[in-house]
Amino acid sequence: MTGEPGRSDLPLTRWQAAAEDYRARQGWSAFCVDTVVWAYPRQFEALNVSRRLGHLVLAALGRRAIAVPVIEIPGASARWVFLTRPYLGAAERIVGVFAGQDVGYAHSLPGSPWVVRLPPTRQPDQAELTWVTSPDVSLPRLSAVARTIQQALGGRDPTRRGR
Questions:
Q1: Model pTM?
Q2: What whole-number distance in Å separates Cα of residue 144 and Cα of residue 89?
């Protein structure tokens, strides 16, 4: 078996095996090119914050018994990526609330150019992406994670209208 459609029956690389595992276990549309494993945010969306803010958000979610898969993007300005269920409201609301803040949002709007890199992705001159928490949990609502991020930033709830 191979890690990509149309490839030969050569043994899988660890990145191809990871993509295959994400497809089989999580049902994600995961793919691999060289040492990069990625997925389109169709089955999930992602909020990306600094590691410092990520620690605060993960602790706050834990106090509320909300489990969430979190990926660490290593480096001097390390980032944490929180995977969530797709947001059912207007994605533009989330984009607007986090505009100008150090929060990225990979959403599933039609035509979205976003992809989410998954562990064990390794790009040149970088350590591998790793899981901070297990991907083997139910994805939380985006609104719960976005609300927690916004509270940690001291701002308004991004999922509420007119506030």
A1: 0.86
A2: 13
Per the listing, tokens 């607007």 go with: 96
Sort 148 into a burial class: Cβ within 10 Å, 0-12 / 13-18 / 19+.
buried
Sequence-distant (6+) residues with CB within 8 A of 140 are 61, 66, 67, 68, 84, 85
Task: Please report, in tens digits, the pLDDT of each residue of the chain (163 residues total).
Answer: 445 555 567 789 999 999 999 999 999 999 999 999 999 877 899 999 999 999 999 999 999 999 999 999 998 899 999 999 988 887 888 888 898 899 999 887 666 777 899 999 997 788 999 999 999 999 999 999 999 999 999 865 555 555 4
